[in-house]
Design goal:
six-stranded antiparallel sheet
Length: about 170
């Protein structure tokens, strides 16, 4: 996944429907106005696209939850489900971020909680090299260094054996 994210992010994908790569990122979300919905707000959709391209099949929206994985909050909720339990804190029980982990930022770009997300390419001391869609809300993708000790909520490490599975009763959100 990290290779896919890095290759895509360095192309400086522009968050506009004229950019073919951006259209590919948006293809999972069937809204007729998806380009407007994701305008300058597509970091989570970038991560979702990279997962899907890497063969990590994810639901658009986890059953019985109202938010889609095109938003950071949905990623956070999904990672904390009992059947996933993929959310980690840096340093907790020896956890150290590594290439391919998903990093969730906390109040990095705004006063809102969990406001940005990206894919870790490297962890070098107190710095992370991260592939991001919508870098700094400037509507383009990039590879950027971030301070590992600043504005990080946690990390999602998707287990290699993960496969989307749902045993519960599906109750559509209306």
């Amino acid at each position: 996944m990290a290779e896919i994210a890095e290759a895509l992010a360095i192309q400086e994908v522009m968050g506009s429907p004229e950019d073919e790569n951006f259209r590919e990122i948006c293809k999972y979300w069937p809204d007729s106005d998806i380009y407007k919905v994701l305008e300058a707000n597509w970091c989570a959709a970038f991560v979702y696209h990279c997962c899907m391209k890497a063969g990590i099949i994810l639901p658009i929206r986890y059953p019985n939850h109202s938010y889609r994985l095109a938003g950071v909050g949905a990623w956070l909720d999904w990672a904390q489900l009992p059947e996933t339990n993929f959310l980690y804190q840096d340093g907790y029980q020896g956890f150290k971020p590594k290439r391919g982990d998903i990093v969730i930022f906390e109040k990095l770009l705004s006063d809102n909680s969990h406001d940005h997300i990206g894919i870790v390419l490297a962890c070098e001391g107190n710095r992370l090299l991260v592939a991001e869609g919508n870098k700094d809300n400037k509507n383009f993708s990039s590879v950027v260094y971030r301070n590992r000790e600043h504005c990080i909520y946690g990390y999602i490490r998707i287990d290699d054996s993960y496969q989307f599975h749902f045993d519960g009763k599906y109750i559509p959100i209306v």
